Amino acid sequence: MTKKHEAHLKPVARGSELFPDPWLEKRSDLLSAIHFRRKPGNVRSGHHLVLYASRHEPGEPADKQKLFAVVRATRHGDDCSETSGEFPWRLSVQPLMVFPRLKFAPTLSESGIAPNKVKEADVFWLEDAEYEAFLEAVKSRLR
């Protein structure tokens, strides 16, 4: 069966790092490029990446992590450029949808994504049902 959506879940804050809210002023770089620890070979041009802030408030439970943007890969992960640092692989993206304030963004639990899915990997495939649930959570925020 063919997937309806080619979408991934991408964390942008790890460990003790708190993601800022509002975030656009300090992290506008996320609207043009996303960095990975390993080369993201399973990401293809045109795939959607749902960005989430794994830590935005001290002590925040995993199911309250915020899904704050959707970007589209503009090149294949195999073709991304290598830089330096802990996340050396840079993939060019373009923004599709952004919640500039985390308080307005849907959470993992609202999107039907199990918190245990988002452990330590750099990027995760989203099943069609998970991506559809995320889109429904976005729609509910617009009502």
Features:
seven-stranded mixed beta sheet; 143 residues; ph1033 like fold; 2 helices; alpha+beta
Description:
The chain is globular, with a radius of gyration of 14 Å. The model has no long low-confidence stretch (mean pLDDT 86). The chain has helices at residues 24-27, 128-142; strands at residues 7-11, 33-36, 48-53, 66-73, 81-82, 89-98, 124-126. The chain is of the alpha+beta class. The longest helix has 15 residues, at 128-142. The protein is built from 2 helices and 7 strands. It has one domain (7-142): Roll (ph1033 like fold), CATH 3.10.590.10. Strands 1, 2, 3, 4, 5, 6 and 7 form a 7-stranded mixed β-sheet that branches.
* Low-pLDDT segments, ≥5 res: none
**Percent of residues in helical segments?**
10-25%
The radius of gyration over CA amounts to: 14 Å
CATH superfamily: ph1033 like domains
Please, how many helices? 2
Report the principal-axis shape: globular
Number of domains: 1
How far apart the termini lie comes to 33 Å
* Percent of residues in beta strands: 25-35%
How would you state the average pLDDT, rounded?
86
Topology, number of strands: 7
What is the name of the CATH topology? ph1033 like fold
Largest β sheet strand count, sense and barrel closure: 7 strands, mixed
What is the CATH-assigned architecture?
Roll
Order of helices and strands: EHEEEEEEH
Q: What is the CATH top level name? A: Alpha Beta
Question: In terms of structural class, how would the helical and strand content be classed?
Answer: alpha+beta
